[in-house]
Amino acid sequence: MAILLSTKANAMQDWRDALLAEDATLDIRLFPDAGDPADIEAAVCWTQHDMAELRRYPNLKLIVSMGAGVDHLLRAPGPPPGIPVARLKDERLTSGMTEWVLLNVLRFHRQDLEYRAQQAARIWDELPAPDTAKRRIGMLGLGQLGNACAQALRSLGFPVMGWTRNPRELSGVQTFAGADGLEAMLRQTDILVCLLPLTPETRGVINAKSLAWLPRGAFVINAARGGHLVAEDLLAALDSGHVAAAALDVFEPEPLPADHAFWTHPKVLVWPHASAITIPASAAPQVVENLRRAREGRALINLVDFSAGY
Ligand code: NDP
Ligand code: OXD
């Protein structure tokens, strides 16, 4: 079984080494050097890989995303029909995202932007003490990442709510689902954190209408995909003061164009899609496990549900 590896040039070797450390017998081909297309039985790829290209491999049995998101694999023309797609559920990815969300929630909650502005002006002045028990966090998505962040925020004493596609019960988290649930949650959300997959249903979910449901002075944190957010609507909400500030890790397009207003906006913190970076050595065991399962015809893990789109 040969595996086609396709990612950014600077990550290719790390992935190859990590997979070989799990199984030294693997035959790994680095795209575009696939060799005989008939040899390729699995493709492990990231966002830049063209799904039409994967139709060249007649014996392909499995596609694996090198990240948690799979929107890049599902967009037209999508994976070759009938080929299962797996994504990552990885401890390091989850802890990385949890750290990043905590960093930005705490930055906003503890008035870090105001204190930095005071420092720049050499102002020694104490602001009113923030009350953790009254700072309501609204999570869009309570999956692998959203749930981990929700639990970490809860453990710090924040009241946490979460919005999902299917109604769920989660200890200590007030849950909401569906369109009515979204409005109900946003109306009580002081810090909004987006950790949704990008699907036709979730595209543009943070827009002028939903931002208006937030209480005045709320904060927005987006670590999911740029397509969840209507950039002009957020800019308008920031400029009117309705939204106090935003921390953004993801954009559409990426990289964020050099002339985009987010770069210099005083109330926007820009990150270069770096909130949770896949560590190949951490992710490799589940990828190799899935390759073995595919080879042996056993049930695969972390499969994408095509009907749900994530
Ligand atoms: P999961 O699939 O584990 O969780 C997705 C969550 O979103 C679930 O709770 C799901 O609801 C909910 N959801 C999906 N569709 C809807 C909808 N239409 N309405 C309401 N809720 C919905 O994903 P992960 O937590 O692993 O990852 C989330 C996203 O984070 C990824 O898809 C990716 O885009 C992004 N990401 C970004 C990274 C970065 O570096 N910036 C790194 C890793 C991921 P339900 O529980 O009902 O299924
Ligand atoms: C992912 C990402 O989806 O890095 O894992 O964005």
Give the secondary structure arrangement, pairings included:
Elements: E1 2-6, H1 9-22, E2 27-30, E3 40-45, E4 62-65, H2 71-74, E5 85-86, H3 91-109, H4 112-120, E6 137-140, H5 144-155, E7 160-164, E8 173-177, H6 178-186, E9 191-194, H7 208-213, E10 218-222, H8 231-239, E11 243-248, E12 268-270, H9 280-296
Parallel strand pairs: 1-2, 1-3, 3-4, 4-5, 6-7, 6-9, 7-8, 9-10, 10-11, 11-12
Helix pairs in contact: 1-9, 3-5
NADPH dihydro-nicotinamide-adenine-dinucleotide phosphate (NDP) binds near residues 144 and 168.
What is the overall number of helices? 9
- What is the SS-derived class? alpha/beta
Q: Poorly predicted ranges (pLDDT <50, ≥5 residues)?
A: none
The biggest beta sheet is recorded as:
7 strands, parallel
SSE run:
EHEEEHEHHEHEEHEHEHEEH
Q: State the shape.
A: elongated
The share of residues in extended strands comes to 15-25%
Query: Strand order, biggest sheet?
Result: 8-7-6-9-10-11-12
Ligands, ions, cofactors? NADPH dihydro-nicotinamide-adenine-dinucleotide phosphate, oxalic acid
The total of beta strands comes to 12
- The chain-level mean pLDDT equals 97
Radius of gyration: 21 Å
Q: What share of residues is helical?
A: 25-40%
What is the CA–CA distance across the termini? 27 Å
